[in-house]
Design goal:
The structure holds 2 protein chains of 2 kinds. Chain A is an all-beta fold. Chain A has 1 helix and 16 strands. Chain A has 3 domains: 63 residues, Roll (SH3 type barrels), CATH 2.30.30.30; 58 residues, Nucleic acid-binding proteins (OB fold (Dihydrolipoamide Acetyltransferase, E2P), Beta Barrel), CATH 2.40.50.140; 56 residues, Nucleic acid-binding proteins (OB fold (Dihydrolipoamide Acetyltransferase, E2P), Beta Barrel), CATH 2.40.50. The radius of gyration of chain A is 20 Å and the shape is globular. Chain B has 11 helices and 13 strands. The N and C termini of chain B lie close together (11 Å). In chain B, the strands form 3 sheets. In chain B, strands 1-5-6-13-12-11-10-9 form an 8-stranded mixed beta sheet, with helices on both faces. Chain B is an alpha+beta fold. Chain B has a domain of 221 residues: BirA Bifunctional Protein, domain 2. The chains are: A mainly beta, B alpha+beta.
Chain lengths: 187, 337
């Protein structure tokens, strides 16, 4: 545990809030005036997955929590839980949809991911900067009087729908930024 | 992806950007009917008003010999409109850009933004509350609008809540006690009170417990601010612990900030001096304040009340978006990515 201030807060960081571990899922600056500055955060409880908002005074201190990462392979989905396995110990663990957030759209069975561990519990995934996924459905040409633009939407092998340049075809592999679903490059 | 690229790929997106011109047209029609003059004020100015909580954009003015002078981008048309009211302009408004530095990383701020400020001679802030009710209904063209799936009634009268009542209703705080004992009250609620000023605790409780409850289902006019939070407003005659300032909220969005204006040049000058000292202490850009404005106040600003409204936020409301960037064709964070 190390003491930090709001100046060091980042999305994706884990802090102790109301004596429980939370993930900072969003942060904004707020200036109500008269010299005060505040940082409004969205905090997801690692215990319940519930998100609450809290506004800190700028400069307020908080405890940053040590999070370890463990490389694990994604196996399959079981209801709302996603099952991962450590390839060396063969230990399995589950992470709930609530803790994975948007990343469930990009999980590919048998791929390896950096699983975040807090106190022996798997609490989420460190989003890689890029995920490589195959395009399974892409419109090839204009339908009727569709206005031609520089982009179109396609479906990826995991079911995710993303916007890509026109030249991407079914069967192509594309690199996507899992933070926002943005197309990065063709594989 | 840049906004123009998104628009190229999805022409239906244009609709939400066209809301802006509609809102602006309705605002101008409203003031035409009210017979207010519209004034264009310069955005490049020599002496910004001293406000320690704002960060100013600084630039350089060059003459023909490349001799340089510091110049600044205006944070609000207020001071210039007031000089014209001293000169006898009467009721007036400005619909223009203002610039406030260090306001990035927020869904509700763009460092360059569109501001609407209007002033009524002989009015106090209660009169401006009525203007807000009328203006929003004129823009909407109807009494009920929807924002983010919530139904909002714009029918008059809007909810009017004093800060003291709001703190009692939503935070369970007796404001008389809060004036004297803020630290103890905040600590009891679980806030970190180390090195915290009264203003910081006031704002923290306000932001966490009160603001999210304002303007739900119908707009809320939050008025009678503690004097410390309304230094440029006239103090309430019957209770000088409070100032004649209001803000109005719709679905938690703060849309406007109004004062019964301060007309006393001595108080205004003292305030500027205090703000300059604070700017120095905070290590921010320090500049000479507008002495010409003090001179104008000495000549005499008529009793008046004025309000500043964030037009981009109004557009957010009518375009039904939650980020100011979604109302801007060229948001700052795209230009400076």
């Amino acid at each position: 545990m190390s003491t930090i201030t709001t100046a060091q807060f980042k999305k994706g960081m884990f802090i102790e809030f109301k004596d429980e571990p939370h993930l900072i899922t969003d942060m904004q600056f707020v200036n109500p005036g008269k010299g005060s500055a505040f940082v409004r955060t969205k905090l997801k409880s690692l215990k319940s997955g519930k998100v609450q908002e809290f506004t800190f005074k700028s400069g307020e201190s908080a405890q940053e929590l040590p999070i370890a990462t463990r490389e694990m392979q994604y196996l399959y989905k079981e209801g709302d839980d996603y099952v991962f396995m450590d390839n060396f110990s063969f230990e399995q663990c589950t992470i709930s949809a609530a803790m994975l957030g948007d990343f469930i759209k990009y999980l590919k069975p048998n791929d390896a991911y950096q699983v975040l561990m807090f106190d022996e519990d798997a609490v989420g995934i460190r989003f890689p900067k890029k995920v490589w996924l195959k395009v399974t459905e892409a419109d090839e040409g204009a339908k009727g009087n569709t206005v031609s633009g520089a982009t179109k939407t396609v479906v990826l092998e995991t079911g995710a729908v993303v916007t890509v340049p026109l030249f991407i075809k079914t069967g192509d592999t594309v690199g996507i930024d899992p933070e926002n679903g943005a197309y990065l490059e063709r594989g | 992806m840049k906004t123009w690229q998104k628009l190229h790929g999805n022409p239906r997106l244009w609709e939400r950007y066209f809301v802006r011109e509609n809102v602006i047209q309705k605002i101008r029609n409203f003031f035409l009917r009210e017979q207010f003059h519209e004034i264009e004020t310069p955005l490049l100015i020599a002496h910004p008003p001293a406000e320690s909580y704002l960060d100013i954009f600084e630039t350089t003015l060059l003459d023909r010999n490349r001799k340089s002078t510091k110049a600044y981008l205006s944070t609000s048309p207020e001071v210039l409109l007031k000089k014209l009211m001293v000169a006898g302009l009467g009721n007036c408004y400005a619909l223009t850009k203002s610039f406030r530095n260090m306001e990035t990383q927020s869904d509700l701020h763009n460092p360059e933004f569109t501001i609407l400020e209007w002033y009524r001679i002989g009015a106090n802030y209660m009169d401006i509350m009525k203007d807000c009710e009328d203006l929003l209904r004129a823009i909407a063209g109807k009494n009920v609008i929807t924002y983010q799936g919530k139904r909002i009634s714009l029918s008059k009268p809007w909810e009017r809540l004093t800060v003291a009542d709001a703190f009692y209703t939503w935070a369970g705080i007796h404001f008389d006690e809060f004036f004297k004992d803020a630290t103890r009250i905040a600590k009891k609620k679980g806030y970190n009170t180390n090195n915290a000023t009264w203003e910081q605790l006031y704002n923290q409780i306000f932001l966490n417990e009160v603001e999210p409850r304002l303007g739900r289902g119908k707009p809320t006019i939050l008025y009678e601010f503690p004097a410390a939070m309304g230094a440029l407003a006239r103090k309430k005659e019957s209770d000088p612990r409070f100032a004649e300032r209001f803000e109005f909220y719709i679905e938690g969005l703060e849309l406007g900030d109004c004062y019964s204006e301060l007309t006393d040049w001595k108080e205004q000058q003292e305030r500027f001096e205090r703000e300059l000292r604070e700017l120095r202490r905070l290590g921010k850009t320090v500049y000479e304040y507008d002495y010409d404005f003090i001179d104008a106040l000495k000549v005499g600003l008529p009793t008046c009340s004025g309000i500043a409204i964030g037009v981009d936020r109004l557009v957010m409301l009518f375009a039904d978006v939650t980020r100011i960037q979604d109302t801007l064709l060229f948001p700052l964070d795209e230009m400076f990515a």
